[in-house]
Structures are given as C-alpha cells and as structure tokens.
Amino acid sequence: MKRVAFVLGNLARGGAERQALDLAVALRAVGWETVFLLAECRGELLGEARAHGFTVVDLRARHWLAKNNPLFWWNCVAVIARIRTAARRHRCSVVQAWSFWEEVLAVPAALLTPGVRMIVSCRQNTAAALGGRWHYRVLQRLANAFVDLVVCTSPAVRAEVLRSERMPARKVRMIPNGVAVERFGRPRARTAFGWPDGAVVVGMLANFKKQKRHDVFIDAFARAVREEPSLCAVLGGSDLGTEFEVRVQIERLGLGDCVHLAGAVERPEEFLAAIDVAALSSDYEGLPVALLEAMAAGLPIVATRVAGTESLVVQGRTGLLVPPGNAREFAAALVRMARSPDKRRSMGARGKARVVSHFSIGHAAAKYAALYQKENSGKPAHG
C-alpha cells in the first residue's frame, strides 16, 4: 500500500485535525496508508488514531514555537531531521503539511528525503489566520517555492492563495473538506443537557478563540432570548484563550440559566443530536468542519457570512447567513429559526442532502488519491 505522511502540530479536537483523521480513514479504502507525524504527541483524537491502527510518530517538538526560546532554530533543525527520518523509515512517497509551521518545516525535510515524490500543503483557512505578521508570509512564500501542490478547501481560500501568496494557478487545487456522514445518523436526544420541554436549543461547536467570536454569539443570544424565551444555548469546545471572557459575559448578561458551556466535546454526533439549530459566529473560516458535521446531522444553520460558510450554506435553503460581527442580525436569525419549526426541519433535510452529494469524506479521499497518483506518475523523487 502506498503511504502519505501527514504533518500536524497535534491531534487536538479541531477542524483540521478532525479532517486529517477522517481523511486518513477514508484514504485506506482507496489504497493509501497514512503515517501521522506530530509536533506534539497529544490531543483528544490521538487515541482514536491509534485505535484505527495508524502509525503515530512523536517529533518531540513541544516547545519549538515557544517565544524567546534560545534553542528555537536548533529545534527547527532537529524537527526537520526527525521528519526526514520518519518519512524515509515508513517509505512515504507523499508528505502533506496541514498548517503554516508544519509546511515551513516539512518542506526542507521532504526535499532531503529519498523516495518522497510529492510535497502537498493544505490551506484550511484564509490568510487572515496569519494576521499581519510579514515574516510569516515571507517564510510561507519561501516554502511555497518548493511545494508541488497547494490544496485549498474552498474557492475563497484558493482565490486568497493566488492573490496573497502569489502562487501559480497550475500549483493550486481545490478539494473541499468532507465529513463521515454515517457518524451523524443518531436520533434526537433532547434530554442530554436537561433542557425543558418546548425549548429550542442553539448549539455552537467551536474552540474558544478570538476567530470564533463567541462574544458576538452571546450578545446576539441575549437579544434573541428577550424576544423568544424558548431559546436555550450550549457551547462546546476547548479553551484556547477566550473561555474566561465568555463566562464573564454570560454572567454579566444574566444568561446563566439558559446558556450552558459543555467543555471539550468528545463525540460531536452526541452534541449535535441534542440541539435544534447549529450556529457559528466566526470572523473568518476556510470550510468549517463544525458546520459540515451539523449539516450531516440534519440541522439548520445560523452563521456569519464569511468566505468559508458561503461555500457551504445556501442562504434561505439550508440556513441563514448574517454579516460578521452583527449581533442584531444574528439575533433576528435565531428568533426566526426558533419560531419556524417546519423551516428548521426542511432546511436541515436539504443541508444533509447537500453534504451527502457534495461534501462526503469519501469524495474528498477519492480526489486526494487521484491527485497523489497523477502527480506521482513518472515524477523523480526528491532527496
């Protein structure tokens, strides 16, 4: 069986990590085995990866990105050497990096590895994820010069890559994220969080970080629940820096009885089975896995109109999109959903059909396998 090395920071529960693991499972069915090379051998999905029998290599780079680390550059060299050793030992012909720093370090490692014929870099998000750090952009463009292909998750991400990274169009492809639809066929389990009968539960599955703008969601929910008292909300996700501020905001607005923080969610299918509407209030996205999963579970969507959500949610048919940062319009969309049970059901059904036909993980795996095979054919190895 042919082998591909996935280079990631860790296997914490995030969109890119979930996508990488689901893709690895699906790639097996089309003749590709995945080896996970992790900068940090940790994360909620690590046990699941091992349970599937995947090889997981610890690159022992826990502090490689620590600020003011006097050994920073030495650590980078050491990690490059470890990636090279692992890719060679496991006879990987493709090396695929899943985010910025992984690409910066995987590219030189792959170039030095005999047998590697292809270097792929994934873009799960728009350039906004790098912020205004010019030196990051310089490093990325330098790495891009040696990458064989950049794979983008949506048309908006592809357009951004062509514009901001100055990549030639022939090296930029688009493969949307996919979801394992069969995991989300569970019947509704409305009692999971103890909500009263008649409650309309809005759920947001997103790690607590600035990009996701939980503050906008809480502000919107406070407005909405004043108009529609049947609304309740549950927020699931790991704390990546903003959970404390969200808790303070909930307390300040007096929402403690109707907003529940569920913490890190081990099984998103169970979380989604307990809610009626899925929400996402991000400032930017690539193609959000959380919304793919929600649609696979047959849920209608209320989300901000950003590049990634526009590629996924059909306005008025599978959900409602509102301008980013606009709590007033977000609240109005929540109230509209709460008062329209028939619309919720029809939107959810259409959303699930859309995911099945366009965004299954099987479709994504077939496209990646075809890409690997086509680009590998007759191409000399690096190293």
Compose a concise summary of this entry.
The protein is of the alpha/beta class and 383 residues long.
Kindly describe this structure.
The chain has about 375 residues and is α/β, with parallel strands linked by helices. The protein has two domains: about 1-180 and about 360-375, 3-Layer(aba) Sandwich (Rossmann fold); about 180-360, Rossmann fold (3-Layer(aba) Sandwich). The chain is built from 14 helices and 13 strands. It has helices at about 15-30, 45-50, 70-90, 100-110, 135-145, 155-165, 215-225, 245-250, 270-275, 290-295, 305-310, 325-340, 340-360, 360-375; strands spanning about 1-10, 30-40, 55-60, 95, 120-125, 150, 170-175, 200-205, 230-235, 260-265, 275-280, 300-305, 320. The strands form two sheets. Strands 3-2-1-4-5-6-7 form a seven-stranded parallel sheet, with helices on both faces. α3 (about 70-90) crosses α4, α4 runs parallel beside α5 and α10 packs across α13 (about 340-360). The protein is globular, with a radius of gyration of 21 Å. The mean pLDDT is about 90.
The largest β sheet comes out as: 7 strands, parallel
Widest beta sheet: strand line-up: 3-2-1-4-5-6-7
- Overall tally of domains: 2
CATH superfamily of the largest domain: Glycogen Phosphorylase B
Helix content: 40-55%
Average pLDDT over all residues: 90
The computed structural class is alpha/beta
What is the CATH class designation of the largest domain? Alpha Beta
Number of helices: 14
Low-confidence stretches: none
The CATH topology of the largest domain: Rossmann fold
Give Rg in angstroms.
21 Å
Q: What is the terminal-to-terminal distance? A: 21 Å
The share of residues in extended strands comes to 15-25%
The coarse silhouette is: globular
Which architecture of the largest domain does the CATH hierarchy give at level 2? 3-Layer(aba) Sandwich
Note the run of SSEs as H and E.
EHEHEHEHEHEHEEHEHEHEHEHEHHH
Number of strands: 13
